[in-house]
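SAMPLE LOG
Freezer: B-3
Tube label: C17
Construct: single chain, 215 aa
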Amino acid sequence: MPRHVQISKTLTQILRHKAPDLGISIDRAGFCKTEDVLAAPWLQELNCTLVDVEKVVKDSDKQRFEVQVFEDVHHIRAVQGHSIEAVDDEASLQRLLEDDPELPELCIHGTYSRYLPLIMKTGLKPGGAEGACFRKHVHFSPFEPGDKKVISGMRYDADIAVWVDIRKAMKAGIPFYISPNKVILSPGKDELIPLEFFQKVTEVKTRKILHDFSE
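STRUCTURE (predicted):
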C-alpha cells in the first residue's frame, strides 16, 4: 500500500473513531490539534509530518478531511463518518431544513446485494449490521449512482441503491445533515430509517427497480 494511502487511512481511523482512545482531545466539531494527531504512535510509525498531512488533505479524492488554524494552532478533522460520541452533529455538520431552497432532491444510499434482505426487513440503520458504534449515521448521496459529482457518501462498487424520500422523513421528525464534501447523513429516529420512507430500491448497474414503494 502506498505511503500516502497508509497515512490517509490512519488519519481516517484516528479522526473518525479512535482519537479519545489514543488520548487525543477532540472538540464538538470533530477538530483535533494536528500536533496531537501527529504524535499518535500509528502516525509516528509512518514518520508522518505536517507536510504529509497537508498533502493528503489536499489530494483526498473524497475530500475526507479539513484543516483550520485556530488561535495560531493547526487543527484537522474528518468531515463526516464519525463514531466518536463527543462529536456533535449540530456543531460538525450543516442541518438540512424542510424549507431550505437548496434541500437536495435526491437522497440515495448505496449498499450491496448481500445486505438487502436485512435492509428490507428492518430498514436502514447507522453502521448497518455493525451498528451505531461503527458509524453514527446512515450515509447518502444527493446524486444518482454513476454521477461524476458523487465524491463521497456512496462506495464506487455499491451494486444496490436505496432511494429515500428525504422530505417525508424530515416531516416525520428524522434529522438530516450535509457535510462539507456533500454527503447527506442521518442518525435516523431511534437509530433507524424505516421502510415507510423508502421510494424505491434499484440495481445500480441496470437501474432495474427491485422494490417500488410508491404503489
